[in-house]
Design goal:
The chain is an alpha/beta fold. Helices cover about 30% and strands about 25% of the residues. The protein starts with a helix and ends with a helix.
């Protein structure tokens, strides 16, 4: 699919028939399928249908069962918001009293779909005609066309007056720049433009890369880092206030939200905890907690301390449940030494090792090769890190296995 004519052909009866036939298509059989289908259908249409089938299969990881009905572009699959994250954001916007919203840089419509399902009427805007065609097709396919209006335009020229909220998802990838864009002012449109557009709306949310420097964040907004299944997916800058007494974004606040459970931690501006000796328990904070600089808040929850001033591992003398960090029972704290580690694991008949590193130059897979683990059934988690500035290795196992 490389132009609007080909995309339109996919929406016509012949294209729909091809897509239905390819619904359970095995990519390994693509050459045979292409040869067979080209006997009865135009080659460009067959190529487009096969390409769409591949994109739908890739999109299942983000959109679940909806992906089988939706339409994608290669960039749209790569850059669209995961459905669980989009649903979380849409629910928060609805809770803030938003009923109408301008979705700027809407892509193939992942967020627009979640917003419409939350009962919000959406103006979806993008300058890419193919992306706009995909949004329209997706809204129709999912029964949301009455709630999603699509406009092909430059978002910087769209008047958002009269909408309850604005959502901006600037492009953060560039072929000319060789992939991901890390400078927020190199986004399209730049973060500074998005911030000014947000300040003009009653409520606004700006999607940005989770690795954004904190000093680039506006202090009159709350920034939320979101992880899903333990993987940090994005950060969102929130502006505005809520209606009807609902809690609104906290200006200057830093928040970590963990999906799918939805636990959300708003930082209290605490100083970094003091480092100390490794106790019986090690805590690995969720990536969103680390990105939001809320390790100190989790340390307060568990009455913990850092194992090193520069390492985001916490330790405590007793087990305290928290959704914001994974706990491990620690059995050994040793200076880093490959031969001693290898001998210890052999002695304990460890055949399965999970190797984690933070603040260590050692690569886990290289260490695994050197350990040459045998066929033992016992397992162990190995942390390659620093303790009090010294290269160290911590051995243990997840707290769930210690019960």
């Amino acid at each position: 699919m490389n132009d609007l004519d080909t995309f339109s052909a996919l929406l016509a009866p012949e294209g729909q028939s091809l897509l239905a036939e390819l619904r359970d298509h095995d990519p390994a059989d693509e050459l045979a399928a292409a040869t067979r289908l080209r006997r009865d259908h135009p080659a460009p249409l067959v190529s487009a249908a096969l390409g769409q089938a591949r994109l739908r299969q890739r999109a299942v990881a983000k959109f679940g069962a909806d992906a089988r009905l939706m339409y994608f572009t290669p960039n749209g699959v790569e850059q669209s918001t995961r459905a669980t994250v989009a649903a979380h954001r849409a629910a928060r916007l609805a809770a803030l009293g938003v009923r109408t919203l301008a979705d700027l840089c809407c892509g193939i419509g992942g967020d627009a779909i979640a917003l419409a399902r939350a009962g919000i009427r959406v103006l979806a805007v993008d300058r890419d005609p193919l992306a706009c065609a995909a949004v329209r097709a997706n809204a129709e396919a999912l029964g949301l066309a009455e709630l999603i209006e699509v406009r092909c335009a430059d978002v910087t020229e769209v008047d958002t007056t009269g909408y309850d909220a604005v959502f901006v998802d600037p492009a953060r990838r560039s072929k000319a720049r060789g992939g991901r864009i890390f400078d927020p002012e190199a986004y399209a449109p730049p973060l500074s433009w998005a911030v000014e557009a947000a300040r003009k709306a009653p409520v606004a949310a700006l999607k940005i890369a989770p690795g954004v420097p904190h000093d680039a964040l506006p202090e009159d907004a709350e920034t939320e880092w979101i992880s899903d299944g333990g993987d940090v997916k994005e950060a969102v800058v929130w502006f505005g206030t809520a209606v009807d007494g609902a809690p609104g974004p906290t200006p200057g606040g830093r928040r970590a939200t963990l999906l799918p459970a939805g636990d959300s931690l708003l930082g209290a501006g605490l100083p970094d905890p003091e480092p100390g000796p490794v106790g019986d328990w090690l805590y690995e904070p969720d990536g969103a907690v680390i990105r939001a600089h809320l390790v100190a808040d989790v340390a307060r929850q568990i009455d913990g301390r850092l194992i090193d001033p520069t390492i985001a591992y916490l330790t405590a003398d007793r087990l305290v449940e928290t959704p914001y960090a994974t706990a491990y029972a620690i059995t050994d704290v040793l200076p880093f030494h490959v031969k001693k580690l290898k001998a210890l694991l052999r002695e304990r008949e460890v055949g399965i090792a999970v190797i984690k590193k933070r603040g260590s130059a050692v690569e886990p897979e290289e260490l695994r090769k050197k350990l040459k683990l045998g066929g033992g059934r016992k397992s162990c988690t190995i942390f390659l890190t620093r303790v009090g500035g010294a290269p160290s290795m911590l051995l243990g196992h997840p707290a769930a296995d210690a019960r």
